Each structure stands twice: as structure tokens, then as C-alpha cells.
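Title: Request for sanity check on Tetratricopeptide repeat protein prediction

Description:
We are preparing a figure and want to confirm that the structure record we downloaded matches what your pipeline produces today. Could someone re-run it with the sequence below and paste the raw C-alpha cells into this thread? We only need the C-alpha cell string, no images.
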Amino acid sequence: MPGRGWVVSGDHNVLAERGGIAVGQVHVEHHHHAAEPVRVPRQLPLPGKDFVGREANLQDLDAKLLSPGASWPLLLTGSPGVGKTTLALYWAHLRADRFPDGQLYAGLQGFTPRRFEGIVLSNVAMSYVYIGRFDKAYGLFEDSLAAAREVGDRHAEAWALTNLGAAQRHNGVLDDSLSALRRAAEIRTAIDDLDGEAWTRAELGRTCSDLGLSDAAEAAFERSIALHLAHGNTYGRARALDQLGQHLLRTGQYARAREVWEEALPLFTALRGSDAARLRLTLASLRDFQ
């Protein structure tokens, strides 16, 4: 695998990273049943539908980022609105298979240093969650929430609470996870951040599922799916459907789980990732329960 690194646009959007710690929205996976292949985060926003005429730029990025001995990081510069972020996002999606550990993203336009901390520290904390350093992670979550609240950034506060709730679930602290995620969902709704709410609701659904709150879990997943559909986020919708299927399976609702996964399968297939193959195997295994 090529060396680790970030792709960064001129207005400070961290787009992708290979093989190490980065900032971006992270969703921690926790499975109640038999072990499954490790799921990786793929949090890149969509680059837009009308991307054309930048073949030379894409080839230049390939040469600079994928060739032997490529140096990291790479900074894209240019005047506002010229298309730096769109170019980087399109390239990162195009070369997603070269980032097997996933892609992480944080939009940092126009952030003061303190506001930057409110967003970024919670994502850095998630990196410590992945390696089991919950003591370090929780300290960073506290700092992130303090920074967000100091500058009145409710978006950053909801982001930090969502990551905190995911980390607490990963650590088995389910009641605290439920509280953090419910508060994050309330903030997302209050500030009309429906895209962010979609991700928070999915995390809330998983915590409710672990707590045995089946109706609440299904409601949260269904809300997440609807919001992702409304925003045209294919990956987010497929992921929430997959998580709903996991919940239905663990509660013995095999027929419904199959229906949900059959809805998710063409979405994952269109995304051309490994999830489609995994889901086909899962659907095949459901025959044993019918």
C-alpha cells in the first residue's frame, strides 16, 4: 500500500488519509453478532454531477499522489471558487480503491482557530478510540465541546456529541451514549442541519439497538434513511439501511432484514466498494433462517 498522507485543498478541507490518524467525521462500528470484516469510514461528500474538463488536473494528481516516492501532503491553491475542493473530492472518489483504510473529511472554511478546535478535536479523539485509548479520547472530547460552546458553534457541538456518543457505545457506556446522541440529534434538528442529523440518527439507532430499545432504534434508522434519500447521499442511505438490517437480524426479524438489505445492495453495488460483496454473502446466509 502506498505511504500515508492527506489531500488538502487551498481552503483547508481535509479530504482523505491513508494508514494513520486524520481529521474527519468518523463512525465507529460495533457488531453484536459474529465477527465481520472491519468496516472502514467513507465520509467524502459528493463532488457534484457536472464535473468535466479537468483530465489534465486529475492526471497531475495521480502523478503527484500515486506514483512511487510520492510526497505528502499535497496542497491545492487558487482563488476562491475556482474549484479546488471539487477537484480534490472528485479525485478522491475516483481513486477511493487506493485508500483501503477509508476516507475522512472535515470542511473547515472560514474557521477561527478556536472554532477549528471545536470541529477537529472530536475527530482526532475518534482516532484514539480506534486504538482503545479512551482516556485520551474523552479528554479531547471535553476540549472539543468546550471550544464549540465557547464560540457558540452548535454545529461543532453536535458533531462532537455525535462522535462522543459513538465512542461511548464502542466502549460499552450505553446510557451515556444514548444521552449524548439524543442531545446531538436535538441540536441538529434545532439548527436545521438535516444532513448532519442523518448521520447522528444512524448512530442513535445503533445505540438504541444495543440497549434493546427496538422501536426507538427502527425509528432512528428510518429517519436517517429518509434524510439521506432527501439529500441524495447514496452511501449514507446504503449504510443506514445496512445498519437497520443488522438490527432487524439481531431481533429475529429475518424477512424484514432481507428486504432492507435487498434495498441496500444495488446502492452498494453502484458505489463499487467491498460492501456489496459482503452483503451478497449475508443475504445468501439468510436462507438458513427461512
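Thanks, this matches our download. The longest helix spans residues 113-130.
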